[in-house]
UniProtKB/TrEMBL annotation, chains A, B:
Gene: leuB
InterPro entries recorded: IsoCit/isopropylmalate_DH_CS, IsoPropMal-DH-like_dom, Isopropylmalate_DH
Native organism taxonomy: Bacteria, Pseudomonadati, Pseudomonadota, Betaproteobacteria, Burkholderiales
Chain positions recorded as substrate binding sites: 90, 100, 128, 222
Protein name in UniProt: 3-isopropylmalate dehydrogenase
Residues reported in the UniProt entry to bind NAD(+): 280-292
Record-linked PANTHER family: 3-ISOPROPYLMALATE DEHYDROGENASE
Amino acid sequence: MKIAVLPGDGIGTEIVAEAVKVLQVLDLKFEMETAAVGGAAYEAHGHPLPEATLKLAKEADAVLFGAVGDWKYDKLERALRPEQAILGLRKNLGLFANFRPAICYEQLVGASSLKPELIAGLDILIIRELTGDIYFGQPRGRRSAPDGHFPGAEEAFDTMRYTRPEVERIAHVAFQAARKRSKRVTSVDKANVLETFQLWKDVVTEVGQQYPDVKLDHMYVDNAAMQLVKAPKAFDVVVTGNMFGDILSDEAAMLTGSIGMLPSASLNASNQGLYEPSHGSAPDIAGKGVANPLATILSAAMMLRFSLNQPQAADRIESAVKDVLAAGLRTADIHSEGTTKVGTRQMGDAVVAAI
Amino acid sequence: MKIAVLPGDGIGTEIVAEAVKVLQVLDLKFEMETAAVGGAAYEAHGHPLPEATLKLAKEADAVLFGAVGDWKYDKLERALRPEQAILGLRKNLGLFANFRPAICYEQLVGASSLKPELIAGLDILIIRELTGDIYFGQPRGRRSAPDGHFPGAEEAFDTMRYTRPEVERIAHVAFQAARKRSKRVTSVDKANVLETFQLWKDVVTEVGQQYPDVKLDHMYVDNAAMQLVKAPKAFDVVVTGNMFGDILSDEAAMLTGSIGMLPSASLNASNQGLYEPSHGSAPDIAGKGVANPLATILSAAMMLRFSLNQPQAADRIESAVKDVLAAGLRTADIHSEGTTKVGTRQMGDAVVAAI
Ligand SMILES: CC(C)[C@H](C(=O)O)[C@@H](O)C(=O)O
Ligand SMILES: CC(C)[C@H](C(=O)O)[C@@H](O)C(=O)O
């Protein structure tokens, strides 16, 4: 088994190093190979997703990804900006199913903006379609407006699209995930306005008939953004498109107050996957040794479970993380009175020790 | 001056009746004419936005709107569903500038999901473009996929579009609003992925140069959804497109915990406007006399200020609402221990008395 390790920019290098350390201590047989991605790859090779990096990612069973991006690349043309690496990996590897758990750890309830009773025990799973929708839909570009309010004016446009099979496959992923949890799926759409999401709603409903044991409901995206704030624990599995999923998964993550703890997985049809923390590259604290490596370490656990067929090793990592939290160790982002503040490396060492 | 009164469905009739009562007591000279809209209009005339209603709305200086929608219309074809009335009014009246204040009233801090210190004193203004974007962009529909992951499969699609003048005019609205407040604008986009929002960002930046006294910053929509949860008070004026504005304005409204208090205004280039509460038609409590009429009453105040040039009358309503809150009157949605629970009509009467 082969893992492509792509640390990327900002705190990416530091946090991925800790996850690699944790993986190494498990004494499993896999090969790890590191390559440049994002701004780091642009600087070294002139492109955020160099050929060699893409080739490595394609050949590997799984990709362990840090984070990409930095304000300093904002002026580059879009095709060369760091985020293009992540979009390119999703597209080229066909990573259509994005798993974004939003979990509030018992000891970190206080870190949330929400009142403790609303957030304690939160455990929702947002499943975001990741290779379709307006992210990749063609045509797109700039032109002179062919009609509309200002015909002839300079216009930019994008195309939102979903085909029936694209919706079917992500719906199956959601229903199957729900079967392993509390058997409820909320499908989020905007069928009252968008043709794309009327099809989405129709297809999810049809697929749902194959899962009579799972309760399906539908919610408009604006309402979902509200209900997440009002009563997040009312959700279990949420399935939605690429654009709405981008927004709602980040909103849900931030509700926990501890986004530094949240992993993610992006899978294709053959369970090849890319694993990355839900947070970004945080250039402001890069290189200071203070970033929280736990989201990346927990992403490595998801990788073991989903792509490398090592569920027991995944369990070991996850309980080690719970142990270090229980022991009161905290990086700066989740630190509070009465707990012990540690740096990135100390946190990684503590997880290794707990394993 | 003429006001078109469109109560609509669910609690619409009850809450609009209270706002009309408040308007009448001000002793100003205007004519009010009522017409059917939404599900009620579909039942009476076979269409959610009958010709006569649209004509009345167009001729009026302002529209006072209740709410539309009910689950029972879910099975109708899209063109006949209640929501089409509101989309049709926006389009036909050219109501491109939607003002969605998210204010947390001092006495209602406890109603929020958020910790009091994060929400107390919140006063942000979300300005949502309302006649462009993927809401109205053509082409849209169903077809056989011309390319993509599953060529030939059944596909649904929509088009996101913005022209330069559409972005310019909403940007001016935002910068001018900011000048009357704390002189900060956050423009929300997804320029890292969408062509449409790269143009958006470019144009807002250009327009911003005409307002050197206003501080402009840019934020991606996913990050905005997070920062609203984390530190809502860091925002002042937020300007964004139709789709993102739909989601973020509802998220922000729910953060206050008292969406029953939040008015909205939708204006066109000649300050003709549609005024409606931020909440929906709440069919579950319709006819029970328990709905909160304050958002509609405050929408009437916005109407007096923006479309009817009666700022003093608007002030009178707004301070009357503050007075009834200070006196401890609360409808069920904002009721808490130690306050007096009242119904819709009693609340309207109390505002009238305070005026
Ligand atoms: C960096 C950006 C293109 C990306 C997205 O919008 O998908 C990010 O926000 C994410 O959610 O992984
Ligand atoms: C009813 C619906 C079409 C509408 C919208 O999406 O604009 C509503 O959510 C709103 O925000 O006024």
